[in-house]
Design brief:
Low-confidence stretches: 115-124, 260-267
Strand content: 15-25%
Helix content: 40-55%
Strand order of the largest sheet: 3-2-1-4-5-10-9-6-7-8
Distance between the termini: 15 Å
Number of helices: 11
Shape: elongated
Number of strands: 10
Order of helices and strands: EHEHHEHEHHEEHEHEHEHHE
């Protein structure tokens, strides 16, 4: 696996490094640290503002970034691993996304500091911008990390299931795990216009379809690495999956690719879960 690990000096970033080492046998790692100087990103701005010691400031920031990469390298296996280091000035989220595309990374690994949804809208968050715009699978890690034994896999539809199946088979976890494949059927509220249509036992039909979905996915991934169980429930997906994630070491979800204002206004289950669950979240694309 080729994994790009996004770095800063936060504990969440170091937790992300440890977590991906627990999860996967890594063959190639790209360590990326973006040095964001804000409005002083460009020398002309510093000159206009008469900022003294600008060159020394840039050199100090660059040296600190190299020290971060040195420290992180010691946290990774010393044998059988190719490590590429990237320490550049620029906006961290843009640098991470660009390098992931350039290197054809299989996985982006990044720590999240848990900023709320309002803060994210106003200020932005590197981890959530990456989760939104990444082309590849993304692992988001907060402060909870450790050996992975119990994995909850949330699947919403057949397209979702196919993506997750391909990922689990192509990139197996390092150690055997217990997978619980969960599908949550939403009830149509009585106030919803769709409830006016003469759909007989819509919930019952949806539940049976979801049961077929999780059983087929379970059968396709069951092997010596995965002990697999299934569960289909009716209710609010975010609430149910958040509760399940409290007893899981990892939550695996799909991404439906909503972007921009549509995504914020309509919401998405995967986006909401990033803000609620305590365990690491793997967003499969």
């Amino acid at each position: 696996m080729r994994a790009l690990i996004a770095l800063d000096w936060s504990e969440q970033a170091f937790a992300a490094v440890r977590e991906v080492s627990y999860l996967y046998d890594l063959h190639e790692v790209i360590l990326v640290h973006g040095i964001d100087l804000g409005m002083f990103q460009y020398p002309i701005v510093a000159e206009v503002s008469s900022m003294q010691g600008y060159d020394d400031f840039r050199k100090a920031m660059e040296k600190a970034g190299e020290q971060l990469l040195d420290h992180t390298s010691t946290m990774l296996p010393s044998e059988g691993l190719s490590i590429t280091r990237v320490c550049e000035f620029g906006k961290p989220a843009s640098l991470i996304l660009d390098k992931a595309r350039e290197t054809h990374a299989d996985l982006i690994v990044i720590g999240a500091r848990g900023r709320g949804r309002v803060g994210e809208l106003v200020l932005g968050s590197v981890s959530h911008r990456v989760a939104l715009h990444a082309d590849c699978t993304t692992l988001i890690v907060k402060e909870r990390e450790g050996p992975v034994k119990r994995v909850t896999v949330a699947v919403e539809g057949h397209e979702d299931g196919a993506r997750i199946k391909d990922w689990l088979l192509s990139h197996p976890f390092k150690n055997p795990v217990d997978l619980t494949i969960v599908s949550v059927v939403r009830q149509i509220p009585s106030t919803d216009p769709f409830s006016l249509f003469p759909l007989q036992d819509w919930t019952g039909i949806a539940v049976r379809s979801a049961e077929d979905l999780v059983k087929n996915l379970a059968a396709s991934v069951m092997n010596h690495r995965y002990t697999v169980g299934t569960q289909v429930t009716v209710g609010d997906p975010t609430d149910i999956l958040t509760e399940r994630a409290k007893s899981a070491d990892l939550l695996v979800i799909g991404s439906h690719g909503r972007k921009g204002l549509e995504r914020f206004l309509l919401g998405s289950i995967s986006h909401a879960l990033l803000h609620h669950v305590p365990c690491p979240v793997l967003i499969v694309r």
